[in-house]
Amino acid sequence: MNKQIQQNHPDAQFVNPQITSDDEIDLRELFAVIWQGKWLIIAITAVFAIGSVVFAIMQPNIYKSEALLAPASEEQGGGLSALASQFGGLASMAGINLGGGGGVDKTQMAIEVMKSRQFASDFIQKHQLLPDLMAAEKWNMAENAVIYDADLYDVSANKWVREVKAPFKPEPSMQEAYKNFSKIVSVNSAKDTGMVTVSVEHLSPSVAKQWVNWLVEDINKVMKERDVAEAIRSSDFLNKQIAQTNVADIRSILYKLVEEQAKTIMFAEVRDEYVFKTIDPALVPEEKAKPKRALICVLGTMLGGMLAVMIVLIRHFVRKE
To answer: What Pfam families does its record include (predicted)?
Structure first.
């Protein structure tokens, strides 16, 4: 059968050798073209290598400080959950919703608050971080001082002098500041352990460490104030409801709810680390986090080499046509 197929297709035995021969010719031609243009390839690669080295050297060091936090908030819904299971039916008849222990996790809410535009704006304005955030150019290690870009910010006059087009103003808006803030501030939660890491990257290691400490302090304070204000409003409402009802069982539920709100306020007042408890505090980093100068040089050189080879091949085939 195989012999008959070969006889019916006499040219079949020449297909593979011809394709192989063409492939060998093409590969030889490509290598020959590359070899002929080796000096151009070397020149372009050298230019890219030198450029990447200069670029890497000009990049300022960025330092990263971080703190490891653990959720410090105890379950606040435990008392309400017990009330819901005990008096849920009676409370529903009276129009009172005790909840079922669901809702948003307080730790996750705190993380989202830290990432929010409102918290970032208040944080920047409270600690007057706008120059360090938007105008920092480099860090003077000897004096441990941030050097600002004179074209953006005049330190002596404490005035923004940058030139921008409308609707932007010389002083950066909170929208501009938030964009930069979200790039250098990171808040991540580990799914397996629940631990939260807060990190800040900055030209100054001292500034990075200080910002991490402020972030932890402020988020604990903000979440505490929110819960206390909510508990006070709830207590006022419940006391009004107690005065308006004469049903003993309903009054008993309302008194227990008032007691739970009092516990919330007491819990908030006696603890500074209300939402997050610091496990590993932030330190002033001694080593830079980036840039990776060696990697920049290697990638720049490789990019130059590949671009040079493409130029040589394209130039050859254009001339050939």
So the answer is: GNVR (PF13807), Wzz (PF02706)
Cβ partners under 8 Å of residue 92, min gap 6: none
User: Of 16-25, 108-117, 153-162, 184-193, where does mean pLDDT reach its minimum?
Assistant: 16-25
285 and 63 in contact (C-beta within 8 Å)? yes
All residues at 6 or more sequence positions from 301 whose CB lies less than 8 Å from its CB, including other chains: 45, 48, 49, 52
Contact indicator for 293, 49 with CB cutoff of 8 Å: no
Between the alpha carbon of residue 33 and those of residues 20, 24, 43, 320, the distances in Å are 20, 14, 16, 11
Closest CA to 306 of 19, 28, 48, 20: 48
Q: Which two structure tokens, joined as six digits, stand for 253?
A: 């539920």
Distance from C-alpha of 205 to C-alpha of 203, rounded to nearest angstrom: 7
Strands 196-202 and 185-189: antiparallel
Find out whether 263 and 62 touch, Cβ atoms under 8 Å. no
Q: What would the pLDDT profile of 14-43 be if each residue is shown by its tens digit?
A: 445 444 444 444 778 788 888 888 899 999
Record the pTM: 0.75
Cis omega (within 30 of 0) for bond into 167: yes
Question: Residue type at 285?
Answer: P
DSSP3 helix / strand / coil % (the chain, rounded to 5): 60, 15, 25
- In one-letter notation, the amino acid at residue 289 is A
CA distance 205 to 182: 18
Peptide bond into 291 cis (omega under 30): yes
What local confidence, expressed as pLDDT, does residue 100 receive?
47
263-269 own/partner pairs: CB under 8 Å, 24+ apart: 263/79, 264/76, 264/227, 264/228, 264/231, 265/228, 265/231, 265/232, 265/235, 267/74, 267/76, 268/224, 268/227, 268/228, 268/231, 269/228
What's phi and psi for 107, nearest 5 deg? -65, -45
**Parallel/antiparallel/unpaired status of strands 196-202 and 159-160:** unpaired
